[in-house]
Design brief:
Belongs to the YkuD family. It is built from six helices and ten strands, in the order ααβαββββββαβαβαβ. By secondary structure, the protein is an alpha+beta fold. It folds into two domains: 83 residues, no CATH class; 142 residues, L,D-transpeptidase catalytic domain-like, CATH 2.40.440.
Length: 281
Amino acid sequence: MRLFLPLSLCLLFVSSLVYSATSSATDTPQYVKPPSTQKSVTQKSEAQKLVVDKIVSDATVIETIVFESATSHAQALSTSPTSANSNNVIVVGDVLESGSDDNKNKVAQLSQGSSKRPPQNSSQQFYNVPNIASQIDPLLQVVTLVKVDKSKRRMYLFKDDEVVQEFRIALGKQPKGHKRFEGDNRTPEGQYKLDYIMEESDFYRSVHINYPQSADKEWAEKHDLSPGGNIKIHGIKNGERRSPSFIQSFDWTDGCIALTNQDMDAFIELVKMGTPIHIEW
């Protein structure tokens, strides 16, 4: 009995220690190793690489398109080698800064037909292009003078000293000589101006000539005559059924200058009001 009590106490103490250790082990949080991020990091890097590769690929395609377009444009403008006096330069792949002396020198060299080329590793491609202004249809440029040669039945449109258009004309029934009075059927000679378009006319479109001038009036008054007037450049008479080529084969007006309707359209399109007209035999 004496041994039983101490043994029981010992067993109770040991059981208490075992229980305490077990509880402590159960209550203590266990460290759980987080799942490896190695795989996700690798996938993200691969995705970024694909995006970068796509951007580079698209940029390469765009650069190729721009290069080919510029080349095609240059070839279309000129089928021959660039002339030495070309004035236009196309820059592809970069923008020239107006304040850059180096860029200005490059432009100057190219515009003078220089054979120098940019470095092969340059991001810029330069192309000499012929001066487009010199290729514009001269008819679209400003007419500075209308000249009528009565003896040749021709009208010439000038831009400065260059003829840009020529028309066949018909004159008054008495074509030779300067108009002096009303009813003489002559076309005036001398320097005049085209002053306005006549909307109401018996002919297909009309442009008025500012005859008579002071000298014409003085001569007519001195001889007790009317100088006449209403001198125009006009098309075929309204209602005319005969062919324009036949009508224009002889002088049929009362002193005006006649064009075919088609030529009259072109004349009004090209010549501004106020343009001087010189008429001579």
